[in-house]
Amino acid sequence: MLEVKGILNGVVLDHIKAGKGLEVFHMLGLDKIDEAVVLLMNVDSKDLGKKDIIKIENRVDFDFNILSLIDTHITVNIIKDDKRVQKFKVEVPENIIGQINCKNPRCITNFDDYIKPTFHKYAENEKVLEYVCEFCEEITKFKK
Ligand SMILES: [Zn+2]
Prior knowledge:
2 domains, five-stranded antiparallel sheet
């Protein structure tokens, strides 16, 4: 098995569905930060068969709950001084502000830079998550 050094301080995102790691990477904007980031893909997993893992060094101030739009099973591990000090699952957010865009091409949020796209949770079941745009009421669906 591929060996990757652990991190002393930072975040380990575990149990990401195999193949979703890159989406998580972009959703958190990890291509734009200066800290060291490792993306591991198709790692063997007891529960999932295969999974992706992301390790971020020296930073923990991310909005992890937005990741539930990609995969609701992601586990967040906060590492401090080489020890895991916190472990939690991402939670489906009630509101999403400024992190995704409205897919309605005529929505005002796609024209006005001063209006932040704002969505409220509309429906949720085992398969799908739905959010409604505050401005145009367009519904955006996310597959679970
Ligand atoms: Zn809209």
